[in-house]
């Protein structure tokens, strides 16, 4: 069932051209420039009126939630808190009965996430889910929700579920923003058109997998790695680091690029690969200076850049060019090279990528 791929993880990375289409199906309609999310249609008015949204998840799903925070705050101008389910549930959180609590989970069975939504329900909040496994416990315990429809994810490291979660969050934030009037018709339609272009763009990144494999080989013996990004790409840096550590056992940390000088910069030397998500957006100039700071300390910079970028190409040790997209959609493209890099490094290290040590696909105990 691996369809000729060596591992489920690789198969699932490559499936993202299709899984994202499955997430769109019947929901993104470029011809009429419309979006539909049947599962939450009835609660859209509540989302429009919401004073705040609490997003809850663990691991990769929490990273998707972080992207969701940027999306909802930008498009729908509503304050968002992103919470680790385990911390949220045990710290006597303040939950208002007009809060919207949005739980994100691939498996729909994560014990902490389930417990957190039960707490939110007791407090009278409206609880929504974004889950992949149909009929799992979380969707059964929420008021409404949206399935990601990414298809079964077998590899323990989450890949296509993440892009599907981010896609759903993007659609939700766009819908709420548009209904609310905080996202203009023009911007709304522009994002619908661009969403429809993503599968092709993902394909063009996957077409570079041989080159990505080659550069990954250079970092097989690293003992540490740093991942940097700003804005929408900060959560992608966190996700890149998590992917590398969980399957290759290389210690990796993700940071917002500007935080580097508040500590992690002390770690940089000629042994340290620094993976930077540095596509063209409003913080481009800033990330260019962060790259210079890394190079000044002899770190190795591997940068994901927008096609045609020459500035970073002149500074970085390696660049991976990806197609241009809208800033808010960039996580869906920039994460792909990070997934591939972790995969290739782990395989070259001889690791069991589909079943990394100590990890389970579904964490049903706390
Ligand atoms: C990372 C990974 C885990 C899960 C986390 C949440 O690749 O697989 O960090 O993301 O255990 O799982 P779900 O989304 O099933 O709640």
From TrEMBL:
The active site is at 361 (for fru-6p isomerization activity). Its EC number is 2.6.1.16. Residues 43-183, 215-356 form the SIS domain. One of its GO terms (biological process) is UDP-N-acetylglucosamine metabolic process. It comes from the Bacteria. GO terms for cellular component: cytosol. Its main location: cytoplasm. It catalyses: D-fructose 6-phosphate + L-glutamine = D-glucosamine 6-phosphate + L-glutamate. Keywords: Aminotransferase, Cytoplasm, Glutamine amidotransferase, Repeat, Transferase. Catalyzes the first step in hexosamine metabolism, converting fructose-6P into glucosamine-6P using glutamine as a nitrogen source. Homodimer. This is Glutamine--fructose-6-phosphate aminotransferase [isomerizing]. The chain holds residues 246 to 611 of 611 of the full protein.
């Amino acid at each position: 069932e691996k369809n000729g791929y060596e591992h489920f993880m690789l198969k699932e990375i490559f499936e993202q051209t299709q899984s994202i289409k499955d997430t769109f199906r019947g929901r993104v309609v470029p011809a009429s420039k419309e979006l539909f999310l049947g599962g939450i249609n009835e609660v859209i008015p509540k989302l429009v009126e919401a004073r705040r949204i609490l997003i809850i998840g663990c691991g990769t799903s929490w990273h998707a939630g972080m992207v969701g925070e940027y999306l909802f705050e930008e498009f729908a101008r509503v304050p968002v808190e992103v919470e680790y389910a385990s911390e949220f549930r045990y710290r006597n959180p303040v939950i208002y009965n007009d809060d919207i609590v949005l739980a994100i989970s691939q498996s729909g069975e994560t014990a902490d996430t389930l417990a957190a939504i039960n707490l939110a329900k007791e407090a009278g909040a409206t609880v929504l889910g974004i889950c992949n496994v149909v009929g799992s416990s979380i969707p059964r315990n929420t008021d409404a929700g949206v399935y990601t429809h990414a298809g079964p994810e077998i590899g323990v490291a989450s890949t296509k579920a993440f892009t599907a979660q981010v896609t759903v969050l993007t659609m939700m934030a766009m819908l709420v923003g548009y209904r609310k009037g905080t996202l203009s018709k023009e911007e709304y339609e522009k994002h619908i058109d661009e969403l429809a272009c993503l599968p092709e763009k993902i394909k063009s990144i996957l077409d570079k997998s041989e080159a990505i494999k080659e550069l990954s080989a250079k970092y097989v013996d690293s003992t540490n790695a740093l991942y940097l990004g700003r804005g929408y790409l900060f959560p992608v840096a966190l996700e890149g680091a998590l992917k590398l550590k969980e399957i290759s056992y290389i210690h990796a940390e993700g940071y917002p690029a500007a935080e580097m000088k508040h500590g992690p910069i002390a770690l940089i030397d000629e042994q340290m690969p620094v993976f930077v998500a540095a596509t063209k957006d409003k913080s481009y100039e800033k990330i260019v200076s962060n790259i210079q700071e890394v190079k000044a300390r002899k770190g190795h910079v591997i940068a994901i850049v927008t096609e045609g970028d020459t500035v970073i190409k002149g500074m970085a040790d390696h660049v991976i060019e990806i197609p241009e997209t809208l800033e808010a959609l960039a996580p869906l493209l920039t994460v792909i090279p990070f997934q591939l890099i972790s995969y290739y490094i782990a395989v070259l290290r001889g690791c069991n990528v589909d079943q990394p040590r100590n990890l389970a696909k579904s964490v049903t105990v706390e």
